[in-house]
Design brief:
Two copies of one chain form a homodimer. By secondary structure, chain A is α+β, with helices and mostly antiparallel strands. Helix content of chain A is 48%, strand content 12%. The structure holds a DNA duplex.
Chain lengths: 116, 116
DNA sequence: TTGATAGATCGACGATCTTCGATATATTGG
DNA sequence: CCAATATATCGAAGATCGTCGATCTATCAA
């Protein structure tokens, strides 16, 4: 499955297909949970990749739940996952965040955000 | 209830409270439906306020459902509602969209987005 | 005032989501 | 090879969401 950030369209795009609307909505939905907002915030503040075990305590959630949220963000294309031994490190995908910024930019009508 | 766009925090804010994380998530959740993405797109393309009855056909939804989606976007603070006789006109709130752009701007750590 | 029309609200149903405990997988150290 | 550890996946329970038909409210025209 393609990451939704790779298929989304700008909010002000001259035309939006059903597929693009769904991908764009899914991108926003991936940020539509307070714990996932906190994950993105923690990754943004730490300039470098962060291990799953370092996220469990600040989020106050069980390990399976943290994995679940990380998977949602990764599937959306916002996060990159990197295996280091038995640890999994996650970091923000800056390209995806640039795309997100273009999606919400109303002056970006002409910007070629969609790619489906 | 305060609009979530008025309480949200930047993704890269130096610190995010539970309340700000919830408001920020709710703002994204309000855009986390393909029909609501289309509504914002239609309002962005039409420079001027749009009547509810003009949205029903392009969305292919029932009138109560369109009202429901418009209420979600309005509650989030993204849309303004204006009564004109027996018609209700909706338009994008450009301040809210500017805030949204600041929320997703990772270089906006210093920007004072939160206000709770 | 009465009838018509626009829009909002209500109640219900099915689908999706968040969360958890239990378990499976994979990697490391001995 | 075995035990320990980190993470992912599974299955279930409860909450939330999108949608609809029915109904309520408000405005206009006659």
């Amino acid at each position: 499955m393609l990451a939704s950030v790779a298929c989304c369209a700008a909010l002000a795009a001259p035309e939006i297909s059903d597929q693009e609307a769904e991908a764009t909505a899914e991108l926003f939905r991936s940020l539509g949970d307070p714990h996932r907002v906190k994950i993105v915030n923690l990754l943004a503040l730490s300039g470098e990749p962060v291990c799953v075990c370092e996220l469990i305590e600040p989020l106050g959630l069980g390990q399976p739940t943290v994995s679940h949220h990380l998977k949602k963000l990764t599937d959306a294309g916002l996060l990159d996952r990197e295996q280091r031994g038995k640890w999994a490190y996650f970091s923000l995908n800056s390209d995806a965040l640039r795309t997100l910024a273009a999606v919400v930019d109303l002056k970006g009508c002409a910007a070629d955000v969609d790619c489906c």
